[in-house]
Amino acid sequence: MGLSKRNDFFDDKGQAIGKFYIPAYVRRYPFILAKLSSEADNLTLCFDPECGLLGKFEDGALLFEGDSPSERTNQIVKFCQDFDTSAAFTRRFVKELQKFDLLVEGNATIKNGYGSAKPTRYAGFLIVDEKRLRDVDGSQLKEWCRSGIMSMIMAHLHSLNLVSALVERQSN
Length: 172
Known about the structure:
InterPro entries: SapC. This protein is 40% helix and 17% strand. By secondary structure, it is of the alpha+beta class. Strand 3 and strand 4 form a beta hairpin. The radius of gyration is 21 Å and the shape is flat. The strands form three sheets. Strands 1-2 form a two-stranded antiparallel sheet. Strands 3-4 form a two-stranded antiparallel sheet. The chain has one domain. It contains six helices and six strands, in the order αββββαββαααα.
């Protein structure tokens, strides 16, 4: 959650610094949907038994009401199902970008990291090449607009512009 080994979104006491988006894969923790066997057709709600967040506590939401899942558990299952649906869409999205050779290696040089005079270079991540995107056939772009892929591309390109916000957090 930052550009180095330090989390730039929380202070030394673990308190959030301002408001920010928390990724869904973090918000779903300690839960995940998984197949219990390779032959299974359905997914089972699983949890990290060592997380320390579940157990018999005085307060907090109940996971079961009698023998039935509680409303909170149903919400957790729905959130995990939505997460899996989004993850499947993301896999299709990346395959589409690869199919049209739109991904290139990205890099960034941050000039002032944590008071250091030496710039830090980040590399090894992939980004959409805007020039290659402009060369994609109009009928393909229209299909991407219909399928939601174009919205994902635009969100990705916008997120690249937010790197400067990470740099600003890092220098504070």
